[in-house]
Amino acid sequence: MNKGCVLEQFDGPMLTRAGRVFPGERAVFGGHDLHSAFADAGWVDLYVFGISGLRLQPAQLKVLESVWVYTSYPDARLWCNRVSALTASSRGTGAQALAAGIVASEASLYGLGPETTIGDFLVRALAAKCGGADLDQLVRAELKQHRHMMGYGRPVGADFVDERIPVSLARMEELGVAMGPHLRLAFELEEALGRVTGKRLPMTMATMMVALPLDFGLSVRQAYLCILPQFVAGMLPCYAEALARPSGATFALRCERIAYDGAPPRAWDACPTSPHKPT
Length: 279
Description:
mainly alpha
């Protein structure tokens, strides 16, 4: 369909299922009156409903909120928190720090970037397992195609158990939320990966963050949207602390303080035919 046809098809008032506000009267959210249907709802309840159209059980919502809490690290050395802190150091606004931090959390090796890949693989692997596929073969095929499996082996401390997983499992047990098929499969894949590679590559929290909403009925895309705010609570303390320092004082570090053990300094001799000469 060309652009002209698209514009023609959607010409006129925008049709929406998301909602609409009627100033002075009411607000509609997903087909429901916001102020009556969600009068007692928590923010996470409303957030998940807006994404998926699902009203999760209170215990499931508490699990989701808890895993967000457990992954909220206010350490300015972490990539997205560093962006928020440096935004404060340059006297950017809180909104700029938060938006930039969330964007930075969508990295390709950690954070939100791998979580979409993880979710896609969990869904495919579960379907294959239900069809009788061997998990070791699935892992071998994934490694052959991608050379590694996202969600296993933490970038920092790859051979350590992710400290957020045990407390999350304990919280699930406390709330009576059983482990669903995607999360069970995630642990089974961890064992299969160890058998195939001969290495200990424990599952990371990223895998659990995706598996939980999948087990609660969300799609991969919905799970991605669901976990977008997972690092937010750790970003703003870093912003506030950096804002209390003088401008430019965050991560001020002399080169001499860096423990560098790479290649030694070397003189650069320009190629005789190169127009670029050292000065």
